[in-house]
Hints:
Order of helices and strands: EEEEEEEEEEEEEEEEEEEEEEEE
Oligomer: single chain
CATH superfamily of the largest domain: Immunoglobulins
Distance between the termini: 33 Å
CATH topology of the largest domain: Immunoglobulin-like
Number of helices: 0
Helix content: under 10%
Largest sheet: 7 strands, antiparallel
CATH architecture of the largest domain: Sandwich
Amino acid sequence: MRINFFAALLGIVLVVPLSALAQSLGGSAAxxxxxxTVSVRPQYPTPQSQASISFISTxxxxxxxxxxxxxAGKEIYRGAxxxxxxxxxxxxxxxxxxxxxxxxxxxxxxxxxxxxxxVILVAEPISSAPPLYPGKPLVPIGGSVRxxxxxxxxDARGKTIGPANLSYAWTVDNTQIANSSGIGxxxxxxxxxxxxxxxSVSVAVTSQNGSLVGGASLSxxxxxxTVRLYRNDPLLGIRFDRALSGEYxxxxxxxxxxxxxxxxxTAGGAPLLQWxxxxxxxxxxxxxxxxxxxxxxxxxxxSLVASAGNSTATADLSLLFGKExxxxxxxL
Length: 332
């Protein structure tokens, strides 16, 4: 099972974008203001990744200008004005970037600082999954998801700021959620989006003095729930290694089955499971024990409906009984 994170992650990345701080300090030809703007993408670059800087100007002819970019005093680009990639270091390390644009015989410059920070968003759907299930349930229809920010903000010396001392500003679908934001508020409870639609969740994380800034975002999409049937072996327990489907032969005096609902909302409690035999309600709960009666061979239809709120998932099984078990040449 998996959570769909649109590239977004948004890009959602089940895991996920990271963060950075970028600020610019002036610098230009003598007596003149800086006539161009430098922008950094992505807004929150990943440590050990590349950020792209681009340029906009309403007064310079950038098409006929010469661009020079230096990082920590070392020139990395000289040529036509175009986006330039900057290789970043570890979280908290500062990239000192000097940009110079020469146009019409006049040189203009700016210096910016790009400081990547490490922020990851983790989605925890509040939905059903079997005990000890190693995977993660999907975002439930009509349910909710807990989104947790894992922030590792460091200053230029590598000193970490404790997550409880950071300020978290949450945004859901471009709306700031003030009552879920603040110092130490590293998690938010988000309602699932409507089916076939996505919901964006983002966070901006800052130190209390505002000197360090990070952020991340992801996209959530609700998925159809499912329910699986498994054999409950009296000696081996529930056989989660193989889900039952189609036909199931009962060759013993009784057989027990277990139903595991996946990705139904558990915000209002455990999902309701209703078993039916030959179209008639039989019992509720995760397990059912079947005891064939009479002589000879026969068949029955078993069905299960798992529901939570307005969401349902169904499973059907054709039961065969009275049929002699088959053996292979090894007697197994």
